[in-house]
Amino acid sequence: RSPYMQQVHNWYRTTKHQLKKNVSRQMTPDIGRAQEVPLRKHTVP
């Protein structure tokens, strides 16, 4: 494998890791909010 490909591979791995971290950080509040909404609908008359 050429050094260039190694570089691209490393960059891809780190970028993918960053993206996954960002996505999970953004998704979790939304999931919590999505679960709250039906509850609020039931409790409020």
From TrEMBL:
Superkingdom of the organism of origin: Eukaryota
Protein name according to UniProt: 10713_t:CDS:1
